């Protein structure tokens, strides 16, 4: 599942003691395992080998250039949601024809850039957006390939903040609206080529059932559209595969593929997948150091040097991340701690009520499952430079993002001369 192991009382990432990296680079620091990352990608590739899908890694889960480059070298495409991510994907060396572009709010200049670069496909989230893409393509004298993102009204049974396939959510187009537009108004968009349909029903989904329900619903739509003489070549299933944070028992890639493959074959479509968390979630940890141990009458707090600005998932979703010391330090017994950051917000709790070996100032801790939606969601709140990132490969480790400095944080600030006395 991942390559972080305890050996002789010490946490290792592959062959490197994590503490060695923390001492060299400082804390907080994100540390990723090269092997875990590629292993997860290959697992998915293998599981679906009979369909030869396009696997477009979801850049929003982890956009580090070195990580993107590694996946692209292995044959991954990329799933992007903005002009910023388009730029990043191209910088990482991703061929434009391996890029898919979702997002409910694509700006005209982002659409233009993506058409000019020749991306594989826009995942279109509304009819007004489809008309806008058509207009931009016409102006450029080009055609734009699209998949319509269908909102199948399926509950993925995950956290409500990361459910995206129900009728109440802002994402996608209802089956009825998509069908009506394709069958009666398609001539309004002459600069659009319909490649197929897109689904993304949510994230951290542990069972195949909601995916299957969604595919079946879109399957009926595909049949009706084909009956009208319109071709449908692709079905993009989005991302959403769940991972283990605590005691979840998510489907494996093999089990997922076993359920999905026959249905896709029946539909005679080519498959696209957009995994994010599945590939990188358990490939990364956040390492932080205890600054102070303090107690109140009712609680013990380990105040650490990483905060909700570094890893917002616990504060935002009440997400659980496993926490463990890097070394079994033998200070003695165990105690129950709230592991809290230095930020001036009560929500700045990284882990609540955890039984840990007795902690002292200076002790380094690992926060697991931080590879996806960790660094990418970090901010500079409270004037805090964002953490460094390191990639471990076998016995070697590499800095893949320098720690920000206070100067970096002020780079874009302007003091207008007219305001200065
Ligand atoms: N495709 C689309 C269109 C998406 O919106 C997403 C994620 C993915 C693929 C990748 O999903 P994954 O395989 O990683 O589940 N920040 C939240 C997760 C938000 C997911 C947003 N969309 C978290 O930390 O749990």
Describe the structure.
- This protein has two domains: 4-31 and 284-409, Lyase, Ornithine Decarboxylase, Chain A, domain 1, CATH 2.40.37; 33-280, Alanine racemase (TIM Barrel), CATH 3.20.20.10.
- Strands 4, 14, 15, 16, 17, 18, 19, 20 and 21 form a nine-stranded mixed beta sheet that branches.
- The protein contains twelve helices and 21 strands.
- The chain is α/β, with parallel strands linked by helices and 421 residues long.
- The N and C termini lie far apart (60 Å).
- Helix 2 packs parallel to helix 9 (253-267), helix 5 (108-117) crosses helix 6 and helix 7 packs parallel to helix 8.
- It is 29% helix and 25% strand.
- The longest helix has 19 residues, at 209-227.
- The protein has helices spanning 18-25, 34-47, 65-73, 83-91, 108-117, 127-140, 175-185, 209-227, 253-267, 277-280, 313-317, 406-410; strands at residues 4-7, 10-13, 16-17, 29-33, 54-58, 77-80, 99-101, 121-124, 144-151, 173-174, 192-198, 234-236, 270-273, 284-295, 300-304, 323-325, 334-340, 349-357, 364-367, 388-393, 396-401.
- Ligand LLP is lined by residues 58, 60-61, 79, 102, 162, 200, 203-204, 238-241, 274-278, 313, 317, 372-373.
